[in-house]
Amino acid sequence: MDHFLFRPIRREEAEQAAEIEQICFPPNEACTPEMMRRRVAKAPELFLVAEDTRTGKLAGFLNGLSTQEETFRDEFFTDAELYDPKGLHVMLLGLDVRPEYRRQGLARELVRRYRQLRQAEGRRLLLLTCLPDKVEMYKKFGFHDEGISDSSWGGEQWHEMTCSLQ
Predict the structure, then answer these.
(1) pLDDT along the chain (166 residues), means of 10
(2) What's phi and psi for 142, nearest 5 deg?
(3) Which of 5, 94, 88, 81 lies closest to 50 in space, CA to CA?
(4) Which of 67, 115, 127, 128 has its CA 20 to 30 Å from the CA of residue 141?
(5) What is the 3-state secondary structure (H, E, C) of the chain?
(6) In whole angstroms, what is the distance from residue 138 CA to residue 161 CA?
(7) Of 155, 162, 122, 157, which is closest to residue 139 (Cα–Cα)?
């Protein structure tokens, strides 16, 4: 991890983040470039990027929106106006790692650092949805499987996962 710089996203990196999102998720699940620009503009502090210091490119990122809500709903993916800067809960919207950086522990490190940052801010809970094949991975990252989510984003059935920060 010594050649990665972990930091908030810069506004000018929204297009790069959108490009990574298109690589990491199928079209029915990926955030649109316009929505990514809105997220970056609205809540850049809730993005954690891993910049490869050898190339200057983003290797991956984790992003979310804070809220007072306690359950995940699909509108978090499409409406950055749901962002509440004082929200105690963070809805995680995407963990994205470029294919050439996978299987090196980068996703785990992004989640670990993100948890620490949000905990230091006084946040109480991280929530995400994932497909069944990712449940075990997120459990290893410290999340608890709450079962099938109400989310039907992208026409898929998701598991809702939570991670207490208290």
Answers:
(1) 96 97 95 96 97 97 97 93 97 98 97 98 97 96 96 91 96
(2) 100, 10
(3) 5
(4) 67
(5) CCCEEEECCCHHHHHHHHHHHHHHCCCCCCCCHHHHHHHHHHCHHHEEEEEECCCCCEEEEEEEEEECCCCCCCHHHHCHHHCCCCCCEEEEEEEEECHHHCCCCHHHHHHHHHHHHHHHCCCCEEEEEECHHHHHHHHHCCCEEEEECCCCHHHCCCEEEEEECC
(6) 8
(7) 162
Cα–Cα distance for residue pair 62/126, rounded to 1 Å: 12
Tokens of 164: 């207490």
What pTM does this model have?
0.95
Contacts of 46 (CB under 8 A, 6+ apart): 63, 64, 65, 66, 83, 90
Retrieve residue 104's tokens. 């090196």
CA distance linking residue 99 with residue 166, whole number of Å = 33
Lookup result for tokens 């079209």: 27
